[in-house]
């Protein structure tokens, strides 16, 4: 009986935490390149074997803005895996992401942080896994319930279905992993600025019409493929940066050990008592 009560407490704590997780967001609602990521659907990467259709003998920095954007979109659409790092202030919330994403399967692993609450996250097929430390659970749930959650769940992986409403804030997080999203609605009167060197890499900054947008989208200047590699925004309500790298480096995400997993109950089964260590 003690074990059942403990299990039930863990389940209740897990549910409370995941209700809190539902408010997590990746980006804000402004009009900067960062918000463009949120508003557009991810572009599926091109299938293997598709030709680039690009004349890679032409230097990226010699292209006019229209052709550069066209080529950057094509290059971004063919990226199968990506490492994305974001540091964003959106509607007063500080959001940090560090994720490695397979854009075909949408599996990912990494960390999500909002206002100092840091969580590990994984997606493996249709299963989502979340893990935090005592401080994270205490902050998410609140003072009284948070103490219980912190003690019962710290170090455990909470498992839920990727389509669960309780995980709505986490399931959409990979929209930020589309390097080409910010280029989808790039204005026809956008501007190509002089090449800059950032972290010893030559980059071509693009921006909207003068006075309309303080954000910049940086395109890789070196090599034949003009990948979008950095987005920077100084918008009042939506500022920060998103960087992309490790293109097409294999991403393999594994489910955590079953003994470390606690199922998040669905609404229809919230009265039942799932078993810690259930099959992942």
Protein model, in words:
- By secondary structure, the chain is α+β, with helices and mostly antiparallel strands.
- The protein has one domain: outer membrane lipoprotein receptor (LolB), chain A (Clam), CATH 2.50.20.20.
- It has 6 helices and 13 strands.
- It has helices spanning 2-21, 33-39, 65-77, 134-141, 143-153, 168-171; strands at residues 81-90, 93-102, 108-114, 117-124, 127-131, 157-161, 191-192, 196-198, 201-207, 216-220, 228-234, 238-245, 261-263.
- Strands 1, 2, 3, 4, 5, 6, 7, 8, 9, 10, 11, 12 and 13 form a 13-stranded mixed β-sheet that branches.
- A hairpin with a 2-residue loop joins β3 (108-114) and β4 (117-124).
- α4 (134-141) runs antiparallel to α5.
- The two termini are 25 Å apart.
- The model is unreliable at 1-42, 47-52 and 268-280 (pLDDT under 50).
Keywords:
single chain; 280 residues; alpha+beta; outer membrane lipoprotein receptor (LolB), chain A; 13-stranded mixed β-sheet; 6 helices; 13 strands; disordered C terminus
